[in-house]
Design a protein that fits this description.
Blueprint lengths: L2 H10 L8 H8 L8 H14 L3 E3 L7 E3 L6 E5 L5 E4 L9 H4 L10 E4 L2 H14 L1
Parallel strand pairs: 3-5
Antiparallel strand pairs: 1-2, 3-4
Helix pairs in contact: 2-3
The protein binds zinc ion (ZN) and manganese (II) ion.
Manganese (II) ion (MN) binds next to loops.
Length: 130
């Protein structure tokens, strides 16, 4: 394993920010000035194939990665694109007539909204306008 791959894995360990490849690249720039964005992309692709990270498609702006492969759901802020983990089992039932022979192996619920920090900013902006 290359030191760069080790650094990426260390950065991802316990990281709940759901970073994109460019977020990871920027975070490790100082420590690894020679590391290219392509290296980060390739490493993330490998880690994804190994099942160590999950690729998230809920942010339309960029591909985000989740280093927690345990099944869970997400809250996403439509303003700042923050993604927060939700560990709740939702009793989502699909009748066999609807699934038509599919064996269901999981689900993923995305909640969209405006996070506490963005809501606070919103309040302040409204107050200054008055
Ligand atoms: Zn926000
Ligand atoms: Mn997550």
């Amino acid at each position: 394993m290359t030191p760069q791959r080790m650094a990426i894995m260390k950065y991802l360990d316990g990281n709940t920010s759901h970073p994109s490849a460019s977020d990871i690249y920027e975070a490790l720039q100082e420590q690894f000035p020679t590391m290219s964005l392509a290296t980060v992309y390739n490493t993330m692709e490998t880690l994804k194939q190994q099942g160590s990270v999950v690729e998230l498609s809920i942010d339309a702006g960029k591909k985000r990665f989740d280093p927690n492969p345990k099944p869970h759901h997400h809250l996403i802020c439509v303003r700042c694109r923050k993604i927060v983990d939700i560990f709740v089992d939702f009793p989502l039932e699909l009748s066999p007539e609807r699934t038509g022979g599919f064996e269901i192996i999981g689900n993923h619920v995305d909640f969209y909204g405006i996070c506490g920090i963005c809501r606070e900013k919103q309040v302040k902006t409204t107050q200054t306008k008055q």
